[in-house]
Amino acid sequence: MRAALWLLALFGVAVAAALFAGNNQGTITLYWPPYRIDFSLNMVVLLLVTSFVTVYAALRALAALLELPHQARRWRVQQKERAMHSAMLDALTHMLAGRFIRSRKAALSALVKEETLAAAVRREIQVAFPDIAEVRITFTADVKGKNSGGNVGLKIKNVIAVGSGKGGVGKSTVAASLAYALQHFGAKVGLMDADVYGPSIPHLVGAQGQPAIRQFQTPDGRTFERIEPILADGLKVMSMGFMVGADQAVIWRGPMLHKALTQFMQQTDWGDLDYLIVDMPPGTGDVALTLSQMVSLAGAVVVCTPQQVALLDAGKAISMFHTVKIPILGMVENMTGEIFGRGGAKAKAQAMGVPFLGEIPIDPIIRILGDEGRIGALFTTENSVKQPLLDIASNVAMRIAAELLENPALPTLEIL
């Protein structure tokens, strides 16, 4: 359109020039016996310009008429797309508001799997638009949280404690696996080893070295120090195992333990994290109390094996978390199979009124990769425990989302 306007302008200049320079200086004679017609040069130019404008306007009008069906079709497609988006939002709103499941918490727990959510949304769209043959749904993640680290100046959305009533149930392995599983889903994750007396996280993730200490300066001139965590396959890791030798014992009383945990949590440069997984020491000591006073934990995961002797102590761990006001995200049954049995943790969870997050089958691949310091490889290779671990991580994330809906986070001030 712009080019046509420029062309018309050039013709206008040509007409003006012709009228100015060619006035009464020449004629064109057309013979049609017995008629004779004399045309001046000005008239010839005017006729040409008029003919061009007329033809151009006619072509533009014709093109506009031909374009009308396409414009109408595009408009209908846009309207349908808007209606589809609206239907998808309505479907999600209805599901989370209780159209399919009455409570919001139950809805989130039931829609852990993407396939379930996709099927529900697809069904709503196809009911609203029967003529649509195929509906493709793409999922993206936006991690929400209680700003767990805000009380101590950390940019951590969710701090998750992984504990057990007793040792030897695979708690540290589950904690490391949970961290890598959440990272596998695209989240930014850190792993803190709070088991000061028996730190095993560095060996499981294959991390070595001693954390460096960096100094930062605030705009007003104040200087503060932060500990740099060790990176293990993109996972930020902090543990007492980096500070002491492999065979060196840590013999501390409670105050020193409290100080070490405070430094690990508050003075480590964790950066922006979606999740910080804390591997708790076994039993019901004062670490849980220290953490509950320091940060607003998103919740706790209790690990146990199926046999009765482990379930007795798992019940004590649940009672401890309840006592210090830490939400229970659920129980995980580890080493499920013929050796230790199956279903004990699920029955215990139902008896105590806490969610059951899933079971991890007993498989030598966990021991092999753990011994090699490559526990994260569980999610880069095909094996029998990969999907159960991913399902447990999904359940943990959805339980946190459900808790956040029931108890929204309050704003906090950042403290250096």
Overview of this structure, please?
The chain has 2 domains: about 1-70, no CATH class; about 150-405, Rossmann fold. It is about 45% helix and about 15% strand. The protein is built from 12 helices and 12 strands. α3 packs antiparallel against α12. About 35% of the residues are buried.
In short, what is this structure?
By secondary structure, the chain is of the alpha/beta class. The chain has 12 helices and 12 strands. The C terminus is likely disordered.
- The portion of residues assigned to helices is 40-55%
Q: What's the total helix number?
A: 12
Uncertain residue ranges? 19-24, 96-112, 411-416
In the CATH hierarchy, the third-tier topology of the largest domain is known as Rossmann fold
Biggest pleated-sheet summary: 8 strands, mixed
Q: Using the coordinates above, name the CATH class of the largest domain.
A: Alpha Beta
Shape label = elongated
Mean pLDDT: 79
- Calculate the terminal CA-CA distance, rounded to whole Å: 61 Å
SSE class: alpha/beta
Task: Tally the beta strands.
Answer: 12
